[in-house]
Amino acid sequence: MRPRQPGLRSGRGKKTVWTFAGESDPRGLVVLMRTYLETLRVRNYSASSLTQREAAIGFLILFCQERGITKAADVTRPVLERYQRHLFFYRKEDGLPTSAIHQHGQLTMLKLFFRWLVRNNYILANPASELELPRLPQRLPDVLTLSEVELLLAQPDISTLVGLRDRTILETLYSTAMRRSELTNLKLHDVEFERGQVTIRQGKGKKDRVVPIGQRALLWLNRYLLEVRPRLVVEPDAGTLFLGSWGAPVHHGPLGNMVKHYLEMAGLKKHGACHLIRHTAATLMLEGGADIRFIQQLLGHKNLETTEIYTHVSITKLKEIHSATHPGAKLRPARTGTESGEHRVAEEADAGARTDAEAGTVLPATRERSGSS
Question: pTM of the full predicted structure?
């Protein structure tokens, strides 16, 4: 049976179980992969990062074993190039191809793995050093307008427990621009109502940060904590902020499906779910005059280049500057017949003056007609 591509797990979140051959060979790909992952684990890499790297390397190992390659030293550049073509032509369970971004990420993790093998003298040469990665598409993220955001927020039925919880989640995502994984990890003590801030712990890259949260979102959070959470919680209470219908913490998979559901209810045909709200919050703040470095701090981006994508999305400020400074941006009022005639006489006078100047004749500013006759 053809192995399912790593990283494309089912909505239930079950981890892929790998079955390899030659797991006892100290120079084999399987043993070296596990040694590499253990090294990263000691260096405090996140569990999600380790899972992604295991998936990328594991799929390559299956590809190589089908071709009789089990040792790391036997992996050559042509083998990796064939694997790259395999990724390109691979089809997921739904028949769709993998994206160029996914292919780029898989190959990047392989390049890191083989670089580690060379540095630790497991292989003599790096077969992935000259591997050319696929070009990434330069696509701008979808964003919602202010009216579309309000339409989305109004979709949950707040007369029900689930609807009130969903409205609170949407308000929190919109106000803080946090990632969905960061929202699902929130604890009760992470929200400080008096200070109007939320502490995000162990976000992307295992980094903590504090972000502001608006008064409207705090009002919905307070209502959720008073009316909904006490009726959902199951003892012993672990202190997770947002709970599912059965008392367990909300999982990021169902959370994304929930946002997509409300987008469809609102008739908003925009790509994305939780990240769409994150993009929208950052873009609207930028259009409102926020400095891009504050946006970077809010989103938790390590590099400013990652945040600069929002300067390309935000067109409102650019249109304002264009209208104010570009000479052809606005229509000029039509001239009346008298104004047009006067304008034409003035243009003819200017043209005559330029002709006299070019001929070397300087006429006095005032000239008596009697003297010239």
Answer: 0.64
Q: What are phi and psi of 296, to 5 degrees?
A: -60, -45
The pLDDT score that the predictor gives to residue 323 is: 76
The residue assigned the tokens 């000479």 is 327
Q: Which of 77, 204, 223, 261 is catalytic?
A: 204
301 catalytic? Reply is: yes
Q: Annotated catalytic, 310? A: yes
Residue among 53, 167, 229, 278 flagged as catalytic: 278
Class of domain 146-322: mainly alpha
Q: Quick check: 242 pLDDT over 80?
A: yes
Q: Which CATH number describes the domain made up of 1-135?
A: 1.10.150.130
Query: Looking at 53, 102, 165, 179, which residue is catalytic?
Result: 179
Q: Of the residues 71, 260, 270, 301, which is catalytic? A: 301
Q: CA-CA distance, 173 to 169, in Å (whole number)? A: 6
Q: Is 122 a catalytic residue?
A: no
Q: How many CB atoms lie within 10 A of CB 341?
A: 11
Question: Has 179 been annotated as catalytic?
Answer: yes
Mean pLDDT, range 69-92, rounded to an integer: 93
Locate the domains of the chain by residue range.
1-135, 146-322
Q: Which parts of the chain fold into alpha helices (H)?
A: 29-42, 47-65, 77-89, 100-119, 146-153, 161-176, 180-184, 215-227, 229-232, 252-265, 274-287, 292-299, 304-307, 309-313, 316-325, 337-359, 369-372
- pLDDT, mean of residues 57-83: 94
165 is catalytic: no
What does the pLDDT average to over 55-78? 93
Catalytic residue among 36, 122, 174, 310: 310
Q: How many residues does the chain have?
A: 373
